[in-house]
Design goal:
alpha/beta, Rossmann fold, binds hypoxanthine
Length: 265
């Protein structure tokens, strides 16, 4: 039987990408910017998880972005789906084996800051793991004691900042706090998150950054703000709102990442 790597190598058709991009809820639009795209559904890739979250397609897209070879992962698995914080580990291991060095993650998030309204993009500078779990629990090597002082790579962040500036798109910066989900936060939890130093909240990305650092990948991550966090507007939050709002900031993120990745070749 062909391994996931064999199948992705075939799809790459001679390309040797060093960069991979994980697309969050409602951010699949970036797939359309990929040139000479070859699509492989996760269901054809041994070890790849099936994501049950609407708004997540679940496919690998191989091609180029702004001329630079890239692998896109459209659709991720979340901790809240099956209680497995390491659900993305097999996928990230395959990427590492294929020669990927840089991992750029995207997500939809709720904003805690008035000046970061829905539709804006936030470059993640650091995170707070508030989930109570860690994807490296059970890992037996000393590699599990991975340092996270520079979890979000300075060079990748500078490239993303520059690309945003060149595209004349204003981006925010901040700390992303990982809540397990799938329920949204309460207003009290959001007040706590603000006190603790969070600028945005969400249900993904942090386990992938921890696994990415464990595997020696340089990581960067961007949030597309889909809503003000619980209690900030008086309205109720919903996944429908996340999916409807994500493409708005998603368009900005698409322009930023196409340029940033295009300049990496
Ligand atoms: N909270 C958690 N996850 C989210 C939110 C939120 O407000 N918005 C989009 N994903």
């Amino acid at each position: 039987m062909k391994t996931a790597s064999d199948i992705i190598i075939e799809a790459l058709n001679g390309l040797a990408p060093r960069v991979a991009l994980v697309l969050g809820s409602g951010l699949g639009g970036l797939v359309e910017a990929v040139e000479n795209a070859v699509h492989v559904p996760y269901s054809e890739l041994a070890g790849f998880p099936e994501s049950g979250v609407s708004g997540h397609a679940g496919e690998v897209v191989a091609g180029t972005l702004g001329g630079t070879p890239v692998l896109l992962l459209s659709g991720r698995v979340h901790y809240y789906e099956k209680g497995d914080a390491a659900a993305m580990r097999p996928v990230l291991e395959v990427l590492k084996g294929l020669g990927i060095e840089k991992l750029i993650l995207t997500n939809a998030a709720g904003s805690l800051r008035e000046e970061l309204p829905p539709g804006s993009v936030m470059l993640i500078e650091d995170h707070i793991n508030f989930s109570g779990t860690n994807p490296l629990i059970g890992e037996e090597t000393d590699g599990r004691f991975v340092g996270l002082t520079n979890a979000y790579d300075a060079d990748l962040r500078a490239r993303i900042e520059k690309a945003a500036k060149d595209e004349s798109i204003t981006i925010g910066h901040g700390v992303y706090m990982w809540f397990s989900g799938p329920s949204f936060e309460t207003p009290a939890e959001i007040r706590m998150a603000r006190t603790m130093g969070a600028d945005a909240v969400g249900m993904s990305t942090v386990p992938e950054v921890i696994l990415g650092r464990f595997l020696g990948l340089s990581c960067a991550a961007c949030s597309v703000i889909t809503n003000f966090a619980a209690g900030m507007t008086g309205g109720e939050l919903s996944h429908t709102e996340t999916k409807d709002m994500a493409p708005i900031g998603g368009k900005k993120l698409q322009a930023i990442l196409t340029r940033a990745i295009g300049e990496m070749s």
